[in-house]
C-alpha cells in the first residue's frame, strides 16, 4: 500500500517511507546522467569533423607558419561547438530550465525556493560551482543518489534542484 499524500502512515497503519515520498518530485540521478549524455551527443558532429580535418592536416605538408584552410576550419568547428554548448547549457537552460537532454527526459533545473528557471547568469555560476563536485573526487556528482532533494554539491550551494517537468 502507498501512503496518502501528506500522510505519515501507509494505508495499513505502518509508518510511510517519508524520505522516499519526499524525493518523488525530484529527478533521478539516472535521468540526470542520461540528460548529460544526450547533451554531449550534440557535440558529436563537431568532434567527428574536427577529427577528420585534423587527420587531413596531419597527413599534409609540414607546418609553414601560416594557417591553412584546415586550421581555419578546425578553429571554426571548435567555436561552433563552444557556441552550441553556451546556447544549450547557459542560455536555453537558464531561460527554460531545460537543456536539450533535460527536455528529452522531461526534467528541469529550477530555483529551489521559487520553482522557476534560474536565468543564464546563475546557470553560468552554477556550472563554475560544479568544481565542488569534482574536487571531492567526484563524490558531489554521486551525492544525488542518497540526498533527500537529489542535489549535487553545486545544487546545494546555488540552491537549485532538478525536478520532473
Keywords for this structure?
165 residues; two-stranded antiparallel ribbon; 9 helices; 6% strand; disordered N terminus
CA gyration radius, whole angstroms: 21 Å
- Strand segment tally: 2
Q: State the low-pLDDT regions, or none.
A: 1-10
Task: Give the ordered list of helices and strands.
Answer: HHHHHEHHHHE
How do the strands line up in the largest sheet? 1-2
Average predicted local confidence, pLDDT: 87
Structural class: mainly alpha
- Helix count, per DSSP? 9
Overall shape: elongated
- End-to-end CA span: 26 Å
Name the helicity range.
55-70%
Largest sheet: 2 strands, antiparallel
Number of self-contained structural domains = 1
Strand content: 5-15%
Structure description:
This protein has nine helices and two strands. 56% of the residues lie in helices and 6% in strands. The two termini are 26 Å apart. It has one domain. It has helices spanning 18-23, 29-41, 44-59, 69-96, 100-104, 120-129, 131-135, 139-142, 153-158, and strands spanning 107-111, 160-164. A two-stranded antiparallel sheet has the order 1-2. The chain is mainly alpha-helical and 165 residues long. α4 packs across α6. Residues 1-22 are annotated as: Disordered. This is RDD domain-containing protein. It is found in: Cell membrane.
